[in-house]
Specification:
Elements: H1 12-28, E1 35-39, H2 43-52, E2 59-63, H3 72-84, H4 90-93, H5 99-103, E3 117-126, H6 141-164, E4 169-175, H7 180-199
Parallel strand pairs: 1-2, 2-3, 3-4
Length: about 200
């Protein structure tokens, strides 16, 4: 929405939902079936891309993402993370609470996911076997905190799906501390339950 003094205007939605698929089709060909998936900070946006471009994506998945960005607690966390990288979090959708944040909040737009194969997963943040943490290693306290936060966001999204009776594969876990092994396990589960069938590759 706003020009960044360093980065200018980045039209990521246009690139990911229009330009990139067209380039891939032109270079390699395709079946016309497409999916989008994201982990952590890209999990919620992956679902949002499917909402904004339902004609492009047949499936969408979020691995420990935050698909409820306009929730005040989530907005604060997202804004702090972006600002921590010396970026302006309000360049993308305007001020918190504005229509832009609501328009790109999957939890407020679940009806637009009807007909899309959806997978969503998060954990309470407790480390477990899925994280494959070496014996004697310091627990990933930062990841534990982040996972607990995204679990809160994901729960809001899942509740909205259920209220609207929009089908989805939901994997809410007791263990997982926002680690790469957790994301790998979520990706494997999403592929076999949701993505591959929707893309016709199962």
């Amino acid at each position: 929405l706003t020009t960044d003094p360093v980065l200018g205007i980045n039209l990521w939605q246009t690139y990911l939902s229009r330009e990139l698929p067209a380039a891939v089709d032109a270079a390699y060909g395709s079946t016309g079936k497409r999916g989008v998936a994201g982990l952590s900070m890209s999990g919620g946006p992956a679902l949002d891309l499917a909402i904004q471009a339902p004609d492009v994506f047949d499936a969408a998945a979020s691995f420990s993402g935050c698909p409820a960005p306009s929730n005040p607690f989530a907005t604060a966390g997202i804004s702090a993370m972006i600002a921590g990288g010396l970026n302006n979090p309000f360049n993308m959708w305007g001020l918190p609470g504005s229509q832009g944040w609501r328009d790109h909040d999957p939890s407020l737009n679940v009806e637009r996911l009807r007909g899309t194969a959806v997978y969503v997963s998060s954990s309470r943040g407790a480390p477990g076997a899925v994280d494959r943490i070496p014996d004697g290693a310091v627990p990933p306290f930062g990841g534990m905190a982040v996972e607990a936060m995204v679990n809160y966001c994901t729960s809001i999204f899942v509740d909205a799906l259920r209220r609207a009776d929009v089908p989805a594969t939901v994997s809410m876990r007791d263990e997982g501390a926002h680690t790469w092994p957790l994301f790998e396990d979520q990706l494997r589960e999403a592929w076999f339950t949701t993505l591959a069938p929707a893309l016709g590759t199962s």
